[in-house]
Protein backbone atom coordinates (compact mmCIF):
# COMPACT_ATOMS: atom_id res chain seq x y z
CA UNK A 1 0.00 0.00 0.00
CA UNK A 2 1.39 3.38 -1.02
CA UNK A 3 1.71 5.83 1.86
CA UNK A 4 2.31 9.55 2.35
CA UNK A 5 3.18 11.77 5.31
CA UNK A 6 0.37 13.68 7.04
CA UNK A 7 0.21 16.18 9.91
CA UNK A 8 -2.44 14.53 12.07
CA UNK A 9 -4.19 15.13 15.34
CA UNK A 10 -3.99 11.65 16.87
CA UNK A 11 -5.49 12.36 20.30
CA UNK A 12 -7.32 15.30 21.86
CA UNK A 13 -5.00 17.41 23.98
CA UNK A 14 -1.86 15.98 22.36
CA UNK A 15 0.26 17.87 19.79
CA UNK A 16 -0.24 16.76 16.17
CA UNK A 17 2.42 14.55 14.61
CA UNK A 18 3.83 13.78 11.17
CA UNK A 19 2.81 10.17 10.51
CA UNK A 20 2.42 7.89 7.47
CA UNK A 21 -1.10 7.35 6.08
CA UNK A 22 -2.41 5.53 2.98
CA UNK A 23 -2.71 7.48 -0.27
CA UNK A 24 -6.48 7.86 -0.92
CA UNK A 25 -8.16 6.47 -4.03
CA UNK A 26 -10.88 8.69 -5.53
CA UNK A 27 -14.34 7.12 -5.36
CA UNK A 28 -17.08 7.67 -7.95
CA UNK A 29 -17.67 11.39 -8.37
CA UNK A 30 -14.40 12.32 -6.68
CA UNK A 31 -11.06 13.71 -7.84
CA UNK A 32 -7.63 13.17 -6.34
CA UNK A 33 -5.88 16.47 -5.68
CA UNK A 34 -2.13 16.74 -5.21
CA UNK A 35 -1.80 19.43 -2.56
CA UNK A 36 0.37 22.41 -3.46
CA UNK A 37 -0.50 24.79 -0.61
CA UNK A 38 -2.48 24.82 2.64
CA UNK A 39 -3.44 27.96 4.55
CA UNK A 40 -3.26 27.72 8.33
CA UNK A 41 -6.26 28.99 10.26
CA UNK A 42 -6.43 30.12 13.88
CA UNK A 43 -9.38 27.73 14.28
CA UNK A 44 -6.93 24.83 13.88
CA UNK A 45 -5.36 25.87 17.20
CA UNK A 46 -8.70 25.30 18.93
CA UNK A 47 -8.68 21.72 17.67
CA UNK A 48 -5.03 21.19 18.57
CA UNK A 49 -5.50 22.45 22.13
CA UNK A 50 -8.97 21.05 22.85
CA UNK A 51 -9.52 18.52 25.64
CA UNK A 52 -11.49 15.31 24.97
CA UNK A 53 -15.19 16.01 24.47
CA UNK A 54 -14.81 19.63 23.42
CA UNK A 55 -15.72 18.88 19.78
CA UNK A 56 -18.32 16.38 18.51
CA UNK A 57 -16.13 14.58 16.00
CA UNK A 58 -13.56 11.81 16.37
CA UNK A 59 -9.79 11.71 16.12
CA UNK A 60 -7.52 10.98 14.36
CA UNK A 61 -7.68 13.30 11.36
CA UNK A 62 -5.29 15.26 9.16
CA UNK A 63 -5.36 19.00 9.78
CA UNK A 64 -5.63 21.77 7.17
CA UNK A 65 -8.85 23.05 5.60
CA UNK A 66 -7.57 25.74 3.20
CA UNK A 67 -6.40 23.62 0.28
CA UNK A 68 -5.18 24.36 -3.25
CA UNK A 69 -3.44 22.03 -5.66
CA UNK A 70 -3.68 20.08 -8.89
CA UNK A 71 -6.04 17.30 -9.99
CA UNK A 72 -4.06 14.13 -10.70
CA UNK A 73 -6.73 11.41 -10.93
CA UNK A 74 -10.47 11.12 -11.56
CA UNK A 75 -13.03 8.78 -10.04
CA UNK A 76 -15.76 7.14 -12.08
CA UNK A 77 -18.35 9.47 -13.58
CA UNK A 78 -16.43 12.73 -13.12
CA UNK A 79 -16.93 15.39 -15.79
CA UNK A 80 -16.04 19.05 -16.05
CA UNK A 81 -12.64 18.54 -14.41
CA UNK A 82 -9.48 17.17 -15.99
CA UNK A 83 -6.21 15.80 -14.70
CA UNK A 84 -3.72 18.66 -14.53
CA UNK A 85 -6.30 21.31 -13.59
CA UNK A 86 -5.28 23.68 -10.82
CA UNK A 87 -8.03 23.90 -8.20
CA UNK A 88 -8.93 25.29 -4.81
CA UNK A 89 -10.96 22.96 -2.60
CA UNK A 90 -14.18 24.08 -0.87
CA UNK A 91 -14.15 23.49 2.86
CA UNK A 92 -16.92 20.86 2.55
CA UNK A 93 -17.99 18.21 2.24
CA UNK A 94 -21.64 18.73 1.34
CA UNK A 95 -24.41 16.17 0.80
CA UNK A 96 -26.06 18.19 -2.02
CA UNK A 97 -29.44 16.66 -1.09
CA UNK A 98 -30.65 18.37 2.11
CA UNK A 99 -32.88 21.45 2.11
CA UNK A 100 -29.96 23.81 2.77
CA UNK A 101 -27.89 22.41 -0.10
CA UNK A 102 -30.85 22.52 -2.48
CA UNK A 103 -31.44 26.17 -1.55
CA UNK A 104 -27.84 27.04 -2.36
CA UNK A 105 -26.96 27.36 1.34
CA UNK A 106 -24.58 24.42 1.24
CA UNK A 107 -22.37 25.92 3.96
CA UNK A 108 -25.26 24.97 6.28
CA UNK A 109 -25.51 21.38 5.00
CA UNK A 110 -27.72 19.54 7.50
CA UNK A 111 -25.91 16.22 7.04
CA UNK A 112 -22.41 17.53 7.70
CA UNK A 113 -21.15 16.79 11.19
CA UNK A 114 -17.47 17.43 10.40
CA UNK A 115 -15.33 18.97 7.68
CA UNK A 116 -12.02 18.65 5.90
CA UNK A 117 -9.33 19.33 8.47
CA UNK A 118 -11.75 19.10 11.40
CA UNK A 119 -13.02 15.56 11.91
CA UNK A 120 -12.26 14.48 8.33
CA UNK A 121 -8.84 14.34 6.70
CA UNK A 122 -7.61 17.71 5.51
CA UNK A 123 -4.82 18.96 3.29
CA UNK A 124 -1.63 18.85 5.37
CA UNK A 125 -0.39 15.88 3.40
CA UNK A 126 0.35 15.10 -0.24
CA UNK A 127 -3.04 14.05 -1.62
CA UNK A 128 -6.72 14.57 -0.77
CA UNK A 129 -9.72 12.95 -2.41
CA UNK A 130 -12.75 15.26 -2.71
CA UNK A 131 -16.04 15.56 -4.58
CA UNK A 132 -15.61 17.05 -8.03
CA UNK A 133 -18.44 19.46 -7.14
CA UNK A 134 -16.27 20.94 -4.40
CA UNK A 135 -13.29 22.10 -6.44
CA UNK A 136 -13.05 25.46 -8.19
CA UNK A 137 -10.68 25.94 -11.18
CA UNK A 138 -7.77 28.31 -10.62
CA UNK A 139 -6.76 29.12 -14.19
CA UNK A 140 -3.52 31.09 -13.69
CA UNK A 141 -3.90 31.87 -9.96
CA UNK A 142 -0.95 30.73 -7.82
CA UNK A 143 -1.99 27.99 -5.32
CA UNK A 144 -0.14 29.85 -2.55
CA UNK A 145 -2.45 32.82 -3.09
CA UNK A 146 -5.49 30.63 -3.70
CA UNK A 147 -5.41 28.41 -0.60
CA UNK A 148 -6.53 31.12 1.88
CA UNK A 149 -9.51 31.90 -0.34
CA UNK A 150 -11.22 28.64 0.66
CA UNK A 151 -11.85 29.81 4.24
CA UNK A 152 -10.44 33.26 5.06
CA UNK A 153 -11.56 34.69 1.72
CA UNK A 154 -14.90 32.93 1.40
CA UNK A 155 -15.91 33.54 5.04
CA UNK A 156 -15.22 37.26 4.72
CA UNK A 157 -17.06 37.37 1.39
CA UNK A 158 -20.09 35.53 2.75
CA UNK A 159 -20.38 37.94 5.70
CA UNK A 160 -19.95 41.05 3.54
CA UNK A 161 -22.40 39.76 0.93
CA UNK A 162 -25.07 39.32 3.59
CA UNK A 163 -24.51 42.86 4.89
CA UNK A 164 -24.10 44.51 1.46
CA UNK A 165 -27.80 45.49 1.00
CA UNK A 166 -27.39 47.83 3.99
CA UNK A 167 -24.30 49.49 2.53
CA UNK A 168 -25.49 52.16 0.16
CA UNK A 169 -24.14 55.63 -0.55
CA UNK A 170 -23.14 57.42 2.64
CA UNK A 171 -22.96 54.21 4.66
CA UNK A 172 -20.13 53.08 6.92
CA UNK A 173 -18.69 49.65 7.72
CA UNK A 174 -16.39 48.83 10.65
CA UNK A 175 -13.97 45.89 10.37
CA UNK A 176 -12.56 44.74 13.72
CA UNK A 177 -9.37 42.68 13.36
CA UNK A 178 -7.24 43.09 10.25
CA UNK A 179 -5.72 39.62 10.14
CA UNK A 180 -6.30 37.22 7.26
CA UNK A 181 -10.10 37.44 7.26
CA UNK A 182 -10.30 41.12 8.09
CA UNK A 183 -7.84 42.01 5.34
CA UNK A 184 -10.07 40.21 2.85
CA UNK A 185 -13.16 41.93 4.27
CA UNK A 186 -11.73 45.43 3.73
CA UNK A 187 -11.06 44.62 0.07
CA UNK A 188 -14.40 42.89 -0.50
CA UNK A 189 -16.27 45.83 1.02
CA UNK A 190 -14.44 48.02 -1.49
CA UNK A 191 -15.46 45.72 -4.35
CA UNK A 192 -19.11 45.14 -3.44
CA UNK A 193 -20.21 48.35 -1.72
CA UNK A 194 -19.73 52.14 -1.79
CA UNK A 195 -19.41 52.29 2.01
CA UNK A 196 -16.79 54.11 4.02
CA UNK A 197 -14.56 51.52 5.74
CA UNK A 198 -13.13 51.89 9.25
CA UNK A 199 -10.45 49.35 10.29
CA UNK A 200 -9.79 48.55 13.96
CA UNK A 201 -6.86 46.49 15.26
CA UNK A 202 -4.50 46.32 18.23
CA UNK A 203 -1.37 46.36 16.03
CA UNK A 204 -0.22 49.44 14.09
CA UNK A 205 1.31 47.25 11.36
CA UNK A 206 -2.05 45.65 10.67
CA UNK A 207 -3.74 49.02 10.54
CA UNK A 208 -1.18 50.06 7.93
CA UNK A 209 -2.16 46.96 5.93
CA UNK A 210 -5.82 47.88 6.29
CA UNK A 211 -5.21 51.36 4.92
CA UNK A 212 -3.13 49.97 2.05
CA UNK A 213 -5.98 47.62 1.15
CA UNK A 214 -8.56 50.38 1.08
CA UNK A 215 -9.70 51.35 4.59
CA UNK A 216 -10.68 55.03 4.77
CA UNK A 217 -10.00 55.31 8.50
CA UNK A 218 -7.99 53.27 11.01
CA UNK A 219 -8.24 53.10 14.77
CA UNK A 220 -6.05 51.37 17.35
CA UNK A 221 -8.07 49.00 19.50
CA UNK A 222 -6.88 50.75 22.65
CA UNK A 223 -8.50 53.95 21.36
CA UNK A 224 -11.58 52.31 19.88
CA UNK A 225 -14.25 53.50 22.28
CA UNK A 226 -17.82 53.52 20.98
CA UNK A 227 -17.62 57.34 20.89
CA UNK A 228 -14.41 57.26 18.82
CA UNK A 229 -15.91 54.84 16.32
CA UNK A 230 -19.07 56.93 16.06
CA UNK A 231 -16.95 60.01 15.41
CA UNK A 232 -15.50 58.23 12.37
CA UNK A 233 -18.98 57.26 11.15
CA UNK A 234 -20.48 60.76 11.16
CA UNK A 235 -21.95 60.23 14.62
CA UNK A 236 -24.62 57.80 13.44
CA UNK A 237 -22.80 54.52 14.01
CA UNK A 238 -21.98 51.86 11.46
CA UNK A 239 -24.41 50.31 9.01
CA UNK A 240 -22.30 47.12 9.24
CA UNK A 241 -19.84 45.84 11.82
CA UNK A 242 -17.72 42.77 11.11
CA UNK A 243 -15.96 41.40 14.19
CA UNK A 244 -13.16 39.04 13.20
CA UNK A 245 -11.86 38.75 16.78
CA UNK A 246 -14.87 37.78 18.86
CA UNK A 247 -13.58 38.61 22.34
CA UNK A 248 -15.85 40.16 24.93
CA UNK A 249 -14.36 43.58 24.27
CA UNK A 250 -14.79 43.47 20.51
CA UNK A 251 -18.32 42.08 20.70
CA UNK A 252 -19.31 44.82 23.14
CA UNK A 253 -17.80 47.38 20.77
CA UNK A 254 -19.76 45.91 17.85
CA UNK A 255 -23.09 46.12 19.68
CA UNK A 256 -22.38 49.66 20.86
CA UNK A 257 -21.35 51.06 17.48
CA UNK A 258 -23.91 49.59 15.07
CA UNK A 259 -26.68 51.94 14.06
CA UNK A 260 -30.42 51.12 14.09
CA UNK A 261 -31.25 49.14 10.98
CA UNK A 262 -27.67 47.98 10.63
CA UNK A 263 -26.09 44.55 10.87
CA UNK A 264 -23.40 42.82 12.92
CA UNK A 265 -21.41 39.75 11.88
CA UNK A 266 -19.55 37.99 14.68
CA UNK A 267 -16.95 35.94 12.81
CA UNK A 268 -14.11 35.55 15.30
CA UNK A 269 -14.31 32.78 17.91
CA UNK A 270 -12.55 34.69 20.69
CA UNK A 271 -14.81 33.47 23.49
CA UNK A 272 -16.97 36.56 23.93
CA UNK A 273 -20.74 36.51 24.41
CA UNK A 274 -23.44 38.99 23.48
CA UNK A 275 -26.29 39.91 25.80
CA UNK A 276 -29.29 40.65 23.58
CA UNK A 277 -32.34 42.56 24.68
CA UNK A 278 -34.11 45.92 24.57
CA UNK A 279 -31.45 48.57 24.96
CA UNK A 280 -28.49 46.33 24.08
CA UNK A 281 -29.12 45.71 20.37
CA UNK A 282 -30.13 48.65 18.16
CA UNK A 283 -33.65 48.46 16.75
CA UNK A 284 -34.01 46.54 13.49
CA UNK A 285 -30.34 45.52 13.68
CA UNK A 286 -29.41 41.98 12.61
CA UNK A 287 -26.81 39.99 14.53
CA UNK A 288 -25.47 36.76 13.03
CA UNK A 289 -22.57 34.31 13.17
CA UNK A 290 -21.59 33.24 9.64
CA UNK A 291 -20.41 29.69 8.98
CA UNK A 292 -17.81 29.80 6.20
CA UNK A 293 -19.38 30.40 2.82
CA UNK A 294 -21.14 28.56 0.03
CA UNK A 295 -19.44 26.89 -2.90
CA UNK A 296 -20.96 29.61 -5.07
CA UNK A 297 -19.29 32.19 -2.80
CA UNK A 298 -15.96 30.44 -3.40
CA UNK A 299 -16.44 30.72 -7.17
CA UNK A 300 -17.04 34.46 -6.73
CA UNK A 301 -14.00 34.91 -4.50
CA UNK A 302 -11.73 33.02 -6.88
CA UNK A 303 -12.98 35.18 -9.76
CA UNK A 304 -12.15 38.35 -7.80
CA UNK A 305 -8.67 37.05 -6.97
CA UNK A 306 -7.99 35.95 -10.54
CA UNK A 307 -8.93 39.45 -11.70
CA UNK A 308 -6.40 40.90 -9.25
CA UNK A 309 -9.11 42.64 -7.23
CA UNK A 310 -8.44 40.91 -3.87
CA UNK A 311 -5.49 39.16 -2.24
CA UNK A 312 -3.54 39.09 1.01
CA UNK A 313 0.08 38.82 2.08
CA UNK A 314 1.31 35.26 2.52
CA UNK A 315 4.02 33.90 4.81
CA UNK A 316 5.25 30.68 3.14
CA UNK A 317 6.51 27.68 5.16
CA UNK A 318 7.89 24.34 3.96
CA UNK A 319 5.88 21.28 4.94
CA UNK A 320 8.60 20.12 7.32
CA UNK A 321 8.14 23.35 9.30
CA UNK A 322 4.38 23.05 9.75
CA UNK A 323 4.60 22.88 13.56
CA UNK A 324 6.72 26.05 13.57
CA UNK A 325 4.19 27.72 11.29
CA UNK A 326 1.37 26.96 13.72
CA UNK A 327 3.51 28.37 16.54
CA UNK A 328 3.77 31.62 14.56
CA UNK A 329 0.00 31.66 14.10
CA UNK A 330 -0.44 31.13 17.84
CA UNK A 331 1.82 34.06 18.76
CA UNK A 332 0.19 36.33 16.17
CA UNK A 333 3.38 37.14 14.27
CA UNK A 334 2.23 36.01 10.83
CA UNK A 335 1.96 38.65 8.12
CA UNK A 336 -1.40 38.00 6.49
CA UNK A 337 -1.79 34.21 6.25
CA UNK A 338 0.63 31.38 6.96
CA UNK A 339 0.66 29.00 4.00
CA UNK A 340 2.41 25.62 4.00
CA UNK A 341 3.60 23.96 0.80
CA UNK A 342 2.40 20.46 0.03
CA UNK A 343 4.10 17.41 1.49
CA UNK A 344 6.91 15.93 -0.62
Structural summary, described in words:
With about 350 residues, this protein is of the alpha/beta class. It has two domains: about 200 residues, Quinone Oxidoreductase, Chain A, domain 1, CATH 3.90.180.10; about 140 residues, Rossmann fold (3-Layer(aba) Sandwich), CATH 3.40.50.720. It is about 25% helix and about 25% strand. The chain has ten helices and 18 strands. Strands 3, 5, 6, 9, 10, 17 and 18 form a seven-stranded mixed β-sheet that branches. The chain has a six-stranded parallel β-sheet with strand order 13-12-11-14-15-16, with helices on both faces. A three-stranded antiparallel β-sheet has the order 2-1-4, with no helix packed on it. Helix 4 crosses helix 5. The longest helix has 13 residues. The protein is globular, with a radius of gyration of 20 Å. The model has no long low-confidence stretch (mean pLDDT about 95).
What labels describe this entry?
344 residues; Quinone Oxidoreductase, Chain A, domain 1; Rossmann fold; 2 domains; 7-stranded mixed sheet; 18 strands; 26% helix
CATH topology of the largest domain: Quinone Oxidoreductase, Chain A, domain 1
Biggest sheet record = 7 strands, mixed
Structural class: alpha/beta
- Radius of gyration (Å): 20 Å
User: Low-confidence segments, ≥5 residues, pLDDT <50?
Assistant: none
Q: What fraction strand?
A: 25-35%
Report the CATH architecture of the largest domain.
Alpha-Beta Complex
Number of helices: 10
- In quaternary terms, these chains amount to single chain
Mean pLDDT: 94
CATH class of the largest domain: Alpha Beta
Order of helices and strands: EEEHEEEHEEEEHHEHEHEHEHEEHEHE
Q: How many structural domains?
A: 2
Q: How helix-rich are the residues, as a percent range?
A: 25-40%
Corresponding CATH superfamily of the largest domain:
Medium-chain alcohol dehydrogenases, catalytic domain
Tell me the distance between the termini.
Answer: 17 Å
Number of strands: 18
Global morphology: globular
Amino acid sequence: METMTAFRLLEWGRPPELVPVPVPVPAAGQVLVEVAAVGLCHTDLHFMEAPPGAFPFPVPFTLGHEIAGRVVDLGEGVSGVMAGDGVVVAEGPRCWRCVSCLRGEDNLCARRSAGRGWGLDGGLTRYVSVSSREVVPLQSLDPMAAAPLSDAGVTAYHAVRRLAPRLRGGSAAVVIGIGGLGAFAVQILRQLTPSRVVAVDSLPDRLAVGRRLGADETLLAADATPAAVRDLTDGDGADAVLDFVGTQGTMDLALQTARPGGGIAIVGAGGGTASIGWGTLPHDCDLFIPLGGTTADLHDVVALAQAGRIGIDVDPFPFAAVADAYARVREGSVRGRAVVTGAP
